[in-house]
């Protein structure tokens, strides 16, 4: 008999009341709140410096222009800071910086420009930019026409007239936590129940009670997932590698990043990848109220549906931190919570050789590989990782295709199993953000 989660079917008000009457056990040491500095994971090494481009003569508003290669193409990312009285020049300045950068380095394939209000600038993960632009070299004339106001351009985003720090965002700062371990917070009985669910999922494979810890170990498939997407400069490099390797992946997207860089989310879907929910602000959920947790997930669902036209099926909690109410918030939104089996800790900058050995050691059928879309060393060794997976006979694919037992023609699709799902219409929940 299928176990029904009663709390997931309750209205929001009753769900909140249920948890108010049954408090969750949180560790004595309080969890970090949004905006606080996160501890560095043990073993983390300083990342190698990213090379920079200097424009001559300089553009005063340019903070930095960095560039990277994936071994096939080079992409630059420019950060530009404007004073409030310069905001009306944002389009023209973005186009000028893109054109000057491409001229300064002929090997570049693309320049991605992020323009911020200098007042309140907090780096990537701080207040949102007021304008972003993706300028492939082949489309620089279209960019110029857009900047001049004589044409539209589909790879630019503007904060719709908001000139406040954050470009109309709520001002909440993203946690800098990385997904490393799976951490459940709850009472003793809740922890025992969660352990049983986790064990059942690992043994049976597939989604158990709305949770996914791994797939069927008898099928030569593993899910390839990337967290924290999309990131300017890195995203074109990663999508290019996946295209060359003919591999599809699931991207767990931060809602605010999707809002500021919508064209990269559209690229993912157009290229056959899958997008999942990674909260709107990339915040740890256990300290939040149920209403706040639902808001984080609901805003991201709305943003991604608007960009892709597709329903969102999967959720991953930042840092791997979750509670019973986190899971019930996800279920109420129709989301299955996806964890991982293989985490090579690419964000720790362990060195290419160490990262490769971790890939080799951990990859297995039914696995869920956790990577980050902005890790330089992953770019360096990704081609070798794909070759290793092929030698092992493991096909890397999306979460949905792993569950369905198919991938890029490797296997015949498994017989579909239809299951009736009852859910709440909660599109309006948490919109008072």
UniProtKB/TrEMBL annotation:
Keyword Repeat in record: no
The cross-references to InterPro entries, in alphabetical order and at most eight, read: Glyco_hydro/deAcase_b/a-brl, NODB_dom, Polysacc_deacetylase_ArnD
What residue stretch is flagged as signal peptide? Answer: 1-20
SUPFAM superfamilies named in the record: Glycoside hydrolase/deacetylase (SSF88713)
Q: Does the keyword Electron transport apply?
A: no
A family per Pfam: Polysacc_deac_1
An example GO BP is:
carbohydrate metabolic process
Could you list the residue ranges forming a coiled coil in this record? Answer: none
Q: What is this protein called?
A: Polysaccharide deacetylase family protein
């Amino acid at each position: 008999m299928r176990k029904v989660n009663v709390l997931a079917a309750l209205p929001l008000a009753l769900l909140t009341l249920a948890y108010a009457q049954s408090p969750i056990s949180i560790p004595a040491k309080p969890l970090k709140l949004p905006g606080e500095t996160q501890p560095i994971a043990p073993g983390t090494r300083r990342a190698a410096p990213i090379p920079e481009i200097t424009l001559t003569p300089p553009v005063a508003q340019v903070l930095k222009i960095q560039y990277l290669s994936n071994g096939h193409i080079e992409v630059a990312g420019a950060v530009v800071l404007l004073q409030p009285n310069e905001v009306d020049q944002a389009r023209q300045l973005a186009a000028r910086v893109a054109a000057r950068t491409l001229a300064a380095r002929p090997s570049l394939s693309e320049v991605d420009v992020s323009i911020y209000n200098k007042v309140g600038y907090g780096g990537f993960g701080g207040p949102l930019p007021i304008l972003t632009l993706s300028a492939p070299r082949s489309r620089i004339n279209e960019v110029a026409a857009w900047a001049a106001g004589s044409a539209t351009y589909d790879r630019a985003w503007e904060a719709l007239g908001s000139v406040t720090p954050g470009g109309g965002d709520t001002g909440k700062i993203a946690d800098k936590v990385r997904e490393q371990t799976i951490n459940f917070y709850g009472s003793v009985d809740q922890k025992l129940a969660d352990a049983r669910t986790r064990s059942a999922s690992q043994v049976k494979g597939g989604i158990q009670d709305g949770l996914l810890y791994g797939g069927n170990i008898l099928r030569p498939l593993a899910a390839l997932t990337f967290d924290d997407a999309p990131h300017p400069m890195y995203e074109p490099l990663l999508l290019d590698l996946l295209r060359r390797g003919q591999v599809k992946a699931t991207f767990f997207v931060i809602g605010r990043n999707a809002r500021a860089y919508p064209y990269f989310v559209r690229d993912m879907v157009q290229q056959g990848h899958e997008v999942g929910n990674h909260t709107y602000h990339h915040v740890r959920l256990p300290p939040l109220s149920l209403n706040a947790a639902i808001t984080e997930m609901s805003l991201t669902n709305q943003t991604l549906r608007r960009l892709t036209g597709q329903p969102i099926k999967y959720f991953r909690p930042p840092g791997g931190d979750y509670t019973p109410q986190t899971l019930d918030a996800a279920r109420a939104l129709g989301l299955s919570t996806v964890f991982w089996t293989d985490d090579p800790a690419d964000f720790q900058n362990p060195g290419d050789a160490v990262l490769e050995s971790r890939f080799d050691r951990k990859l297995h059928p039914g696995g869920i590989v956790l990577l980050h879309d902005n890790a330089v060393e992953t770019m360096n060794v990704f081609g070798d990782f794909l070759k290793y997976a092929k030698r092992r006979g493991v096909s890397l694919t999306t979460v949905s295709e792993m569950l369905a037992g198919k991938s890029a023609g490797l296997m015949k699709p498994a017989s579909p199993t239809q299951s009736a799902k009852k859910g709440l219409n909660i599109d309006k929940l948490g919109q008072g953000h």
